[in-house]
Amino acid sequence: MAPLRFLILTLALIPIDTAIAQSEATEETVERLFAAPAKAFDPALPETPFGTWFDEILPKRSGRYFELTPCGPENTGGHPRGCLTIEVDIVSRHRNLRLVFERDSLAFRGGALSATELEGIFAVGSLAALPKLLKRGMRPFPLDCPANTDLKMRESYAGLFEWCEDAGGARQGPTRAWFSTGIYLLYRGQYADGAKTGDWTECNRFERCAFNRYKNGVKQ
Q1: Chain centroid to CA 101: how far?
Q2: What share of the chain is helix, strand, coil (3-state, %, to 5)?
Q3: Is the Cα dihedral 3, 65, 86, 98 positive or negative?
Q4: What region, left, alpha or beta, does residue 79 occupy, with left being phi > 0 and alpha being psi -120 to 50 degrees?
Q5: Strand residues in the chain grouped as ranges (E)
Q6: CB 144 within 8 A of CB 106
Q7: Are 122 and 111 in contact (CB under 8 A)?
Q8: How many Å apart are CA 116 and CA 142, to the nearest integer?
């Protein structure tokens, strides 16, 4: 199992003993969750422990944070139900996964995968669908090409390049390019009759981006 890191957002505002108790409660809940059979959360999942399955589907470089928070209606004792939130930063800040489980029953409450460069948030309705959703979210979605153009793609060791092309071979409409991982943005912009036009985002391998404006292919 990957090392656990615990995120206590209000650590500076609460007594140390309370913070320690919260950390211990979080760790205990995570250990129960990760030791439980994955199949207990969805019949389509394997019998292996949830933590083993979770480690296998996540990219190895992901950072994980765990937090206990109140959620849902009160339980029979009149106390708010507690939930365990798992936040996963997948490859720096470019993809973020959030999953929520009830603290006591460990029932899955749902989650979301956000992809900042794709400007999308995609609901996680079932854990069985998570591997496919992760694969989908780790690769760019196809461009929405204008009418009378076709989507073109070229992939090599250097990266993934996407653009829209009309019948005459001229680039029209949106274009994007990604470095070899398919995660880090190289550029995003628009073409008009084969020339760069409008606002472009252009980045290097160190994730430093410039925001440029073009007119008829000339930087303004």
Answers
A1: 18
A2: 20, 45, 35
A3: negative
A4: beta
A5: 63-74, 80-90, 95-102, 108-115, 120-124, 149-156, 159-166, 171-179, 185-192, 195-203, 209-215, 218-219
A6: no
A7: no
A8: 15
For the chain, the domains span 11-137, 149-219
**Surface-to-core class of residue 115, CB atoms within 10 Å of its CB (0-12 exposed, 13-18 middle, 19+ buried):** buried
Cα–Cα dist 194/178, whole Å: 20
Residue with tokens 């496919």: 132
C-alpha 140/C-alpha 189 separation (Å) is 15
Cβ neighbours around 179 below 10 Å, total: 16
Distance CA(154)–CA(177), nearest Å, equals: 9
pLDDT in tens, the chain (220 residues): 544 454 444 445 556 666 677 888 899 999 999 999 999 999 999 999 999 999 998 877 678 899 998 886 655 555 667 999 999 987 655 678 999 999 999 999 999 988 765 556 888 989 999 988 877 666 656 678 999 999 998 877 777 788 999 999 999 999 988 886 556 788 989 999 999 999 999 988 877 889 999 999 999 9
Whole-prediction pTM value?
A: 0.61
Closest among 97, 64, 66 to 82, alpha carbons compared: 66
Q: Measured between alpha carbons, how far is 79 from 177 in angstroms, rounded to an integer?
A: 51
Report the SS3 class of residue 33.
helix
Integer Cα distance of 220 and 46 in angstroms? 56
Of 47, 36, 49, residue with least CA distance to 104: 36
